[in-house]
């Protein structure tokens, strides 16, 4: 009798092992597929961070020139400085002051500098204030990398509600963070 029970356990054990292997294969496949999609999103994210870095460099250049004529006590200077802090923090928080806000603050500071007699008297700084920096600030507006990333990330997050997305989340794959390009500057 004991031998008969022992023989009947072999098919049950084999069946249980097959179910376990099937579950592991499903989890592994879902994890690999969704990790591949996350890596594709990473290219979009890198483009967003490059765009933010271009704004950071433009803001630094503007503040360097403006710093020769005014300081942090000037509200226009302080606004761009606040925008710069937001953009520098955005590399880790993925949330920065809007492109439009930075553009408006930078243009206001540039216009103020362009009207100053001492800036007009300095050929180099006058060129920066009237030609180079306005062009660099305007170029910041043309970047739509954040829009492209957010569209791809929203699509990815929506697909994460599928069965394979559920399995992937069980293995540690997470939703994509959306890029917030529109937080208010601290001076506003």
Any chance you could write out the topology, listing elements then pairs?
Layout: H1 2-67, H2 75-93, E1 95-97, H3 99-114, H4 117-121, H5 123-141, H6 145-159, H7 163-170, E2 180-183
Helix pairs in contact: 1-2, 1-3, 1-5, 1-6, 1-7, 2-3, 3-5
Radius of gyration: 27 Å
One letter per element, helices H and strands E, the order comes to HHEHHHHHE
| Amino- and carboxy-terminal Cα gap | 84 Å
The secondary-structure class comes to: mainly alpha
Mean pLDDT: 88
How are the strands of the largest sheet arranged?
1-2
The helicity comes to over 70%
How would you summarize what this structure contains?
It is built from seven helices and two strands; from the N terminus they run ααβαααααβ.
Give a written overview of the molecule:
- It contains seven helices and two strands.
- The termini are far apart.
- It is mainly α and about 190 residues long.
- A two-stranded parallel ribbon has the order 1-2.
List keywords for this structure.
single chain; 188 residues; mainly alpha; two-stranded parallel sheet; 7 helices; 4% strand; rod-shaped
